[in-house]
Amino acid sequence: MSGLTETQSVPASVRAAVLERDGSSCRLCGAAAKHPAIHHIFYESQGGSPTGRHVMENLVTVHWMYEPRCHETIHSNKRLWQPVLAEVVKHDGLTAYELMRRVRRSWGRPR
Q1: What pTM did the predictor assign?
Q2: Residue-wise over 67-83: b if at least 16 C-beta within 10 A, else e?
Q3: Cα(51)–Cα(32) distance, rounded to whole angstroms?
Q4: 23-45: average pLDDT
Q5: What is the number of H-type helices and E-type strands within the chain?
Q6: What tens digit of pLDDT does each residue of 40-86 get?
Q7: 40: closest CA among 91, 75, 1?
Q8: How far apart are CA 111 and CA 44, in angstroms?
Q9: CA distance to 7, 57, 83, 95, 104, per residue, from 49 (Å)
Q10: Rounded distance, CA 41 to CA 82, Å?
Q11: If you average pLDDT over residues 19-32, what whole number do you get?
Q12: Nearest CA to 95 among 39, 29, 20?
C-alpha cells in the first residue's frame, strides 16, 4: 500500500484506546483535538520504542492539522519532545507543556 503512514498502520483497537486515554485531546497542548492524530513517540526508523511500535506507551494524541500546529512542533525538535512525551503518557491528563512548566519551576526559572 503506497502512502501508508505510521499513524495509519496503528491497529484500530489501539488507536481507539489511545484516543480514549487522551480524551481526544492533544497531549502536547491539552486542547481538544479537532483533527486528532495518533503520533508515535519513538519512530521505527530511529530504533523504535523499547516496548514496541504500536503500544500505548509509544503513542500520543496530537493536533494533526490547522492551529495549533502541535504535530509540526514535535517534528521541529524531536530530541526535546520525545523524552517529554514518553513521560507524559505515564500520567493521565498531563500535557507536555504542563510538564515543561513544572520542570522550569523546579529549576527556579520563571514561566
Answers
A1: 0.79
A2: eebbbebbeeeeeebbe
A3: 27
A4: 88
A5: 4, 2
A6: 998 877 666 666 678 899 999 998 776 778 888 998 998 999 999 99
A7: 75
A8: 34
A9: 15, 9, 11, 20, 27
A10: 6
A11: 94
A12: 29
